[in-house]
Amino acid sequence: MKKSTNIPVLSSLKWKRRERTILCSLATGSEHLEMLGLMAPTAAYYAQLHRMDSLLLPLPDKRLDPSRPPAWDKIVLIHHMLKLYETVIWIDADAIFCDPRKDIRTVLNTRTPMHMVAHRTGRRKIPNTGVWICRSLPKTFEMLHHIWNSTQYVDHRWWEQAALMELIGYDTESATFRGATPYTPHVRFIDREWNSRSSDCAVNPIIYHYCSKPKPIDDMYRKYVAFMQRVLQM
Predict the structure, then answer these.
(1) Residue 191 region, left (φ>0) first, then alpha (ψ -120 to 50), else beta?
(2) What is the pTM of this model?
(3) Which residues contact 142 (CB under 8 A, 6 or more apart)?
(4) Contact by Cβ (8 Å): 217, 101
(5) 190 vs 115: CA distance, rounded Å
(6) Residue spans of alpha helices (H) in the chain
(7) CA nearest 62: which of 77, 42, 80, 47?
(8) Which of 6, 184, 220 is nearest to 92 (CA)?
């Protein structure tokens, strides 16, 4: 099937902005739908606490672009929301908030198009788009279109993340940094507390990401319960 090179327009999505920032996610497939069911209440609470809008979409029988693997749908949603919001915060459905107290915007540079965590793997630091903060700037749109048009990565094991990695100077096979490109300065890495994983976890993670397989639903449920207990004590 031919892969489109224009980011689809979500003309059917009717949405009214209330705040200047939105936190968003979506899920397809039974496993990620189950994980979104646990993540969504934590994300909605976080957004409300910090005066953000939130859109957390379970899509059991619908895709934003069925011509590509599901991971690419995040580009479609982020691109659409950047036309409405100053800041779009994306979080993968297999991630969950652990501590809602700190506002992620306090660690952002408002002039930098994109922020994310780079996970440490040995001596390498690998950018991860599981938590991806985008500012509504011309350079952000330019980069998203470059990523979308990198069709050689449509079926890569890291999908849109691989396209972004190449854009900012990484070799996508060895996951090593080759050297700066014109786009490297436009991505800023933030502390791993915002996207912790089992092999690279902060002491007190704010967001924990189950980015490897298998997906431990039971552990995610325990983090959901711990989050709710923390909220009740605030």
Answers:
(1) beta
(2) 0.95
(3) none
(4) no
(5) 7
(6) 30-49, 73-81, 138-148, 159-167, 217-233
(7) 77
(8) 220
Give the start-to-end residue ranges of the domains of the chain: 21-233
Does residue 75 surpass a pLDDT of 60?
A: yes
**Mean model confidence pLDDT for the chain:** 95
Q: What is the pLDDT of residues 31-71, one digit of tens each?
A: 999 999 999 999 999 999 999 999 999 999 999 999 999 99
Give the CA distances from residue 207 to residues 31, 144, 165, in Å, rounded to whole numbers and listed in that order: 19, 24, 22
In this structure, what token pair is assigned to residue 192? 């791993």
Fold of 21-233: Spore Coat Polysaccharide Biosynthesis Protein SpsA; Chain A (3.90.550)
Between vectors from CA 186 to CA 173 and to CA 202, what angle results, nearest 5°? Answer: 70
Burial class (CB in 10 A: 0-12, 13-18, 19+), 202: middle
Contact of 18 with 53, CB cutoff 8 Å: yes
**Among all chains, which residue has been given the structure tokens 């409405």?**
84
What's the Cα-to-Cα distance from 230 to each of 34, 94, 99, 224, rounded to whole Å? 22, 20, 8, 10
Structure tokens at 104: 């992620």
With a CB cutoff of 8 Å and minimum separation 6, the contacts of 138 are none
DSSP assignments along 130-149, one per residue: EEEEEE--HHHHHHHHHHHT
